[in-house]
């Protein structure tokens, strides 16, 4: 049985950093319930800053295979459209 953290394993397999893997996992887990995600709300849920989320989203979008991530708008923070 592996003791590696799931985000570390995901990061290794996708080439993402651990932080990017956390964001991707969050989007995967919530894409069925929501379509639009604000960077600041993702940040609040993951204990990151909105700036950290925004800076990592392009890598997440490029690596995501089961969800599509698209920058959707900027109104009181960046909004991302995520579809499964």
Q: What would you say about this model in short?
A:
The chain has a domain at 31-83. It has helices spanning 6-14, 18-30, 39-46, 50-63; strands at residues 36-38, 68-74, 78-83. The protein has four helices and three strands; from the N terminus they run H-H-E-H-H-E-E.
Describe the structure in your own words.
There is one protein chain. The chain is of the alpha+beta class and 84 residues long. It has a domain at 31-83. The protein is built from four helices and three strands, in the order H-H-E-H-H-E-E. The chain has helices at residues 6-14, 18-30, 39-46, 50-63; strands at 36-38, 68-74, 78-83. A hairpin with a 3-residue loop joins strand 2 (68-74) and strand 3. Helix 1 crosses helix 2, helix 2 crosses helix 4 and helix 3 crosses helix 4 (50-63). The chain starts with 5 loop residues before the first helix and ends with a strand. The mean pLDDT is 87.
What descriptive keywords fit this protein?
3-stranded antiparallel beta sheet; 84 residues; alpha+beta; 19% strand; 4 helices; single chain
Please state the overall shape, judged from the principal axes of the Cα atoms: globular
List the strand order in the largest sheet.
1-3-2
Q: What structural class do you assign from the helix and strand content?
A: alpha+beta
Radius of gyration: 12 Å
Number-wise, the strands total 3
Low-confidence stretches: none
Helix content: 40-55%
How many helices? 4
Instruction: Please trace the helix and strand order, writing H or E for each element.
Output: HHEHHEE
Pfam family, one: DUF7123
Protein name: DUF7123 domain-containing protein
